[in-house]
Amino acid sequence: MGITTNFLIDVLSFTKATNLFETIVGVTVAKPDFQPLAKEVVQECSGLPIAITIAIARVAHALKEESLPAWKDALLQLKRSSQTNIEGMSEKVYSSIKLSYDFLGSEEAKILLLLCSLHEEDANIFIEKLLRYSLVGACLKISTQLKRQET
User: Fold this and answer.
1) I want to staple 96 with a disulfide (CB 3.0 to 4.6 A). Which of 37, 55, 125, 134 is the partner?
2) What is the pLDDT of residue 28?
3) Among the listed ranges 10-19, 22-31, 59-68, 76-85, which one has the minimum average pLDDT value?
4) Which sequence ranges form a coiled-coil region, renumbered to this chain (predicted)?
5) Burial class for 101, CB neighbours closer than 10 Å (0-12, 13-18, 19+)
6) What was the pLDDT predicted at 140?
């Protein structure tokens, strides 16, 4: 892309991180039962805007109508995520991305995300190619299942 300047994006203060959380989640966070949990999620993301945005946006969407125990489970998953050996990746960013991935609705959605991630940033991704890749993947899965049944 020809960009040669890097910009440092600092961590958010706890207040700003909480405001970002509240903006993304909306009304749910106003409920008294959710407020301590909201603070804990914000602390777990260490004020990193990308961690807050990825983790909270995805989880908030998935759990929009869910109960407090479902939110507590999501927080527990966020805390349990452990980083793999990815150079330069913050543990908090990794755990938020992993949580977001884990909350995708189906295996098909996960596969689609992984297929899209094979393309360069801002690349035009042709739906026809994704469809072909998905069909090939489905055929391989069926073939594997048939081979298992034969043995």
Assistant:
1) 55
2) 64
3) 59-68
4) none
5) middle
6) 81
- Tell me if the domain spanning 7-103 has CATH number 1.20.1740: no
Burial class (CB in 10 A: 0-12, 13-18, 19+), 87: exposed
The residue whose two tokens read 């407090």 is 68
Residues 48-68 have a mean pLDDT of: 68
Q: Please give the pLDDT value at position 32.
A: 80
Cα→Cα distances 73→16, 37, 56, 59, 90, Å: 24, 11, 13, 11, 22
Q: 3-state secondary structure string, the chain?
A: CCCCCCCCCCCCCHHHHHHHHHHHHHHHHHCCCCHHHHHHHHHHCCCCHHHHHHHHHHHHHHCCCCCHHHHHHHHHHHHHCCCCCCCCCCHHHHHHHHHHHHCCCCHHHHHHHHHHHCCCCCCCCCHHHHHHHHHHHHHHHHHHHHHHHHC
Q: How many angstroms from the chain centroid is the CA of residue 145? A: 29
Annotated domain spans of the chain: 7-103, 106-150
Question: Which amino acid makes up residue 137?
Answer: G
